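To: structure desk
From: M.T.
Subject: fold request, one chain
Message: Could you run this one when you get a chance? Sequence is below, nothing fancy, just the single chain.
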Amino acid sequence: MKIAPSLSVKDIKEQFNAHFPYLKIEFYNYEHEKHEGSSVDKQIKESMLLSDINSEIFEGVIDIDSEMTAADFEALMREKFGLNVQVFRKSKSLWLQTSSTDSWTLEKQNGKGERSTLDYDIDPVNISDFDLD
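Reply: Done. Structure tokens follow.
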């Protein structure tokens, strides 16, 4: 994932989502602790440039490892580029902050998100219809 001062929040979000289609990241004005959520009123707009968030940001690349935990990815973005992000996972039609599952890998988070969007066509079982012998 390429990081550069001239890129927007939206550009980074799209790069991340290309790797993990059932995950997304949001950018925030402040840092959060592991297993802690972030407030929607502190979200940074997608149109904002990275240089406006962190005037000292430099160009670089993050190799996104699917075995990296959500917490480790968030910490890497903060430590390397001074960007406060929160990973979200798709859950049917909603997006959930992964704060309670920060220790899951990005691959596991993405798989859980994918499974939440599947329609399982399973016939209901009538539990009152059974044989006694």
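Reply (cont.): Residues 2-116 form one domain. Let me know if you need anything else for the meeting.
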